Amino acid sequence: MEAERLESSLWVGNKRYRAVLTGWHFNWTEVDKKNRDKKTISVPVAEVVGVEEGRVEILPQKVVEDTDKDFTVFYVKRSSSGGSSGLLWRLGRTQFSCPGRVLRDQWTKHLRAALKTHSPLRPHKLLVFINPFGGKKKGRAIYHSVVAPLFELAGISSHVIVTERANQARDHLLKKDLTGFDGVVCVGGDGMFSEILHGVIGRTQQEAGLCENDPAVALQPCSLHIGIIPAGSTDCVCYATVGAIDPLTSALHIVIGDSQPLDVCSVHDAAALVRYSVSMLGYGFYGDVLAESEKHRWMGPLRYDYSGTMVYLSNRSYAGVVQYLPADPLLSSPRDKTRCLSGCSVCSRSTERLFHSFSDSGSLYSSHFSEFSSDSEGDWVSVEGRFRCVSLTCMSSSCPRSPYGLSPSAHLADGTGDLILVWETNPLGFLKFLYRHTSTQDQFDLPFVEVHRVKAVRFCLPSSKEEESHGETGGGADEEERGYGAAGSRAGSQQHLADGAAGPEKPGGAFLCGLCRSAAPAASVWNCDGEILPVTEILCRVHGQLVRLYARGIEDAAALHGCSEDCDECERRCIFNK
Ligand SMILES: Nc1ncnc2c1ncn2[C@@H]1O[C@H](COP(=O)(O)OP(=O)(O)OP(=O)(O)O)[C@@H](O)[C@H]1O
Q1: GO CC terms for this protein (predicted)?
Q2: Three-class DSSP labels, 206-234
Q3: pLDDT of amino acid 438
Q4: Among 192, 194, 295, 529, which is best to mutate for testing ligand 1, by the most ligand atoms less than 8 A from CB?
Q5: What is the pLDDT of residue 96?
Q6: Residue 229 forms beta bridges with which residues?
Q7: What is the DSSP string of 47-95?
Q8: Quick one: which atom of ligand 1 is closest to the CA of 233?
Q9: How many whole angstroms from 212 Cα to the centroid of ligand 1?
């Protein structure tokens, strides 16, 4: 590391600076100022994007003034969040001048060597899929104007495929030669990401000789990283893993080789794997909204608001049996008021737990496997009743409309998901639940809502016999809110059953919109990350840290910027020291 150390005077414009490269950091301090005005700019080497000879600019267009004495350093610079929950990243650029060419070459050589040593996960070769029809159809333009220039600056070669049909990217990943690629970049929305997720996981299991259909099989973690350049109409995975929907921020995370592990939920029916999910699996309200919105695609993004309102007014609830395998409550809880932010300690500890026998690649995930085997059957908890919605999320699922998400304390990479059960309730109660997703109020602090941190979930419809008997004794949907199950309690759920709240659609539950209810089906559909599942009875298993994204989780803006001068956090991250 000492070999990389370099210190000298450098000029930025007509001001003289003392510049120091210490291996991990590159700092420059103005020297001709009084002490108290001295400011040191400190950039972690891991966040240096590129070093170029001459006076160079790359965005919006590349401009090079080739001089012997100058060099330009490009690096990550944080800017105000502009309404996102994380910080936006921008391309910082400083042009340094040296007294002569020898020193200039020394600086560029040392900086590049430091980059190699301290940023080992930077990609060299990427496979890029662009969905030209995603969102506002700007995928191609975004890639060429924002992303490609950064890849060029960072020396990343890319093979770009503009898709011509749905599932082309998935099929390519499953069948074509991927030798030499470090990662796959998805330019599009959540649907496109899901395609790539399926391709990357499927390819990895094929190569490992593992069967994806068997939920008891411990899947092989994927070595190909996935980068998301948001260019869709819904970009929730990007938002929840970066904290912003911003192509430049995402491109910078890719270029510097950030690596964020991500849990993935495999969804199976009795015979096979149905799909993978990373954000939300929702039955009842969320399934109905998606099914309804599909009928109104012509409305564009407005269809979600319209369908949400219609489905809300229909006030439907559905009978079901939910079984879940609880996660260890000593490790974390969905109501512990923590947030999974960049460098999350719960996720870091989970890495050790999930990969405790990492040295023996044959037994990766061995702990998870035993937890899921039939030995643990007695650990499953079963609840039955009528639900307004049943949701399972492997991450907070935050999005611009709901900055804290479906489950604000969920973790990206702890090997668990949060199961949210919303029992049948009156329409105003459910509205309160929905509204709380847009505010800082706790949506789980309602008597008809339960949340459980889980490793696996099964869902099935009640047998028709039971269904009939519940129907005969069933209470009305307009009962007091507190009559619908005690929050967080297994006994409460069973009590709920004993109270006979379950049953088929009851006319007494109608609210406002008789029309909407007239054709209410006995079962809802599953919304799996924005796709309707073709099956109702499912088994879901969370696979800890199955994939890795070029991201680092949501950065804590308060810790980085809203701090006092001697803030330890800023010192540690060396963003801006006085
Ligand atoms: N060339 C293509 N033609 C048609 N569909 C495509 C093409 N490329 C990808 N797709 C599919 O389009 C779907 C939506 O893509 P994406 O998520 O990028 O956009 P979106 O605008 O956010 O989607 P949505 O229509 O769901 O809001 C994906 O499921 C993907 O499989």
Answers
A1: membrane
A2: HHHCCCCCCCCCCCCCCCCEEEEEECCCC
A3: 92
A4: 192
A5: 97
A6: 187
A7: GEEEEEESEEE-SSS-EEE--SSEEEEEEEEEE--TTSSSPEEEEEEEE
A8: 22
A9: 24
Q: Report the C-alpha gap between 60 and 58 in whole angstroms.
A: 6
Is 285 within the bounds of a domain? yes
Number of domains comprising the chain = 3
Contact 394, 509 (CB under 8 A): no
pLDDT of res. 20: 96
Q: From ligand 1's centre to the CA of 341, what distance in Å?
A: 29
Does a structural domain hold residue 205? yes
Residues contacting 106, CB < 8 A, separation 6+:
6
Contacts of 451 (CB under 8 A, 6+ apart): 334, 335, 407, 418, 419, 420, 421, 444, 488
Could you write out the DSSP letters of every residue in 321-386?
EEEEEE--TTT--TTS-----TT-HHHHHHHHHHTTTTTSGGGTTHHHHHHHSGGGGGG-EEEEEE
Give the pLDDT band of residue 298 (cuts 50, 70, 90): confident
**Among 133, 185, 279, residue to substitute to test ligand 1 (most atoms within 8 Å of Cβ):** 133
More confident site: 565 or 246: 246
- Helix or strand run (H / E) with residue 518: helix 514-518
- 454 in the same domain as 308: yes
- The question of ipTM being above 0.90 is answered as yes
Nearest CA to ligand 1 atom 11: 166
Pair 141, 10 in one domain = no
Q: Are residues 114 and 129 in the same domain?
A: no
Among 57, 91, 49, 51, which Cα is nearest to 71's? 51
Can you give the CATH number for the domain in which 140 is found? 3.40.50.10330
Separation CA 457–CA 396 (nearest Å): 18
Q: Which of 59-63, 318-322, 537-541 has the lowest mean pLDDT?
A: 59-63
Q: Which domain holds residue 108?
A: 2-119+557-573
Same-domain status, 100 and 131: no
Distances 192 to 199, 235, 254, 320, 485 between C-alpha atoms, Å? 11, 10, 17, 31, 38
For residue 353, being part of any structural domain is answered with no
Pairing of the two strands 183-188 and 125-130: parallel
Q: Catalytic residues, which ones?
A: 190
Q: Which residue has a Cα nearest atom 26 of ligand 1?
A: 191
Angstrom distance (rounded) from CA 24 to CA 117: 9
The whole-number pLDDT of residue 37 equals 66
Domain contains 388: yes
- Give φ, ψ of 290 to 5 degrees: -65, -45
pLDDT digits (tens, 9 = 90+) for 483-514: 333 333 333 343 333 333 333 344 334 444 44
* Pocket residues: Cβ below 6 A from ligand 1: 131-135, 163-167, 188-192, 195, 232-234, 530
| 88 and 158 part of one domain | no
